[in-house]
Design a protein that fits this description.
alpha/beta, Four Helix Bundle (Hemerythrin (Met), subunit A), Rossmann fold, 434 Repressor (Amino-terminal Domain)
Length: 448
Amino acid sequence: MLDNLTQRLSQVVRSLRGQARLTEANIQDALREVRIALLEADVALPVVKDFIQAVRDKAVGLEVHQNLNPGQALISVVHQELTRLMGEQTAGLDLATQPPAVVLMAGLQGSGKTTTSGKLARLLKEGRKKVLLVSCDVYRPAAIEQLRVLGEGLGVDVFPSDTSQAPVEIARAAREFARTHYHDVLIVDTAGRLAIDEQMMAEIKALHASVNPIETLFVVDAMQGQDAVNVARAFSEALPLTGVVLTKLDGDARGGAALSVRHITGKPIKFVGMGEKVGALEPFHPERMASRVLGMGDVLSLIEQATQGVDREEAEKLARKVKAGKDFDLEDFKAQLQQMKRMGGIGSLMEKLPAQLAGATPAGVDHEKSLARIEGIINSMTVQERRHPALLKASRKRRIAAGSGVQVQEVNRLLNQFEQMQKMMKMMSKGGLAKMMRGMKGMMPGMG
């Protein structure tokens, strides 16, 4: 997301050198690059104009601090304005009302409303809320079934929708059910259309009036680009929106919607969807997103993601094993790969790293595919071979390679990586942390 914008803005840092003060003259070319970068990222033109003017007003006349170069000083101003543009403060859900608190999901068909409803239910359940899901999309039985399956998988209650009833009747019945069965939150998934029309807007206005939601979330596909802005404006005029959910930010999108929708609707971006899995919904932090756009990384979100994904019992078990001086084996190695997958995979973790560190990986490396191949190789070994890797001689390697559909060279490469990790674990058991850090090079596939 926003890769091109990040690259262009990093060029701005290098374009200003040897200036003691930022002036209209010496930032002109830099601001032009920023303008082009924003437009190429599909940010709406009115938003770009306001943004550039705000940066110019703050930057011109700014004294460059002795610890910064002029490019860094300008980027600092751009960072402040990006944060302001995207909302400055993190905005969570407001559920302070007599239960059930109703959350209404609005948006076009295909924007990800149903999936987002399930993801949001999961987040609320983790926060110890009793959640009820209901679909009012009587035009698409598949959407009703999709929500039912999502709820079943999450262990969240789903109110049965009768397609012979009007959406307003279904929503009212669901709210009454939620009230009498002591649900804290009712999430109402509404119908969408391929384009905005009067019938859809009239229906969702009637739904809003009937259930009086405390939160009305506009769900928009970040890959829609300029269309996202037009749709946002239409929904904002029709409904009293309380927030925005941006979906598919992990896709091949230029990402300008993230910078435009907040400006157009005047409502905070509350969540972002970063994948198809039910856990891939993140609270939106404007300052962290601004840092990611500028190639500074998002270390706080990285730590949170890692903390949530780690199986603490497994981690403590491995720590005890290492501390006792026992050998780290291929069963342990496989367990670490599975922990990595639970955290969202290497790709999800790396996009939150600062650009200099993320750039250490050669372009075109498919980390998830590499991990899957490694796991496939380990799965082709017997339990005895995993626990005693010294048994793996030529004939066994050939069998494992054939069983996992790879060349013998890949099996050897995996064993070399495993041996490096095994040495690191031994260093850790002896307190050699500095040595371990030096030994990390080449540990993971494709990493420099």
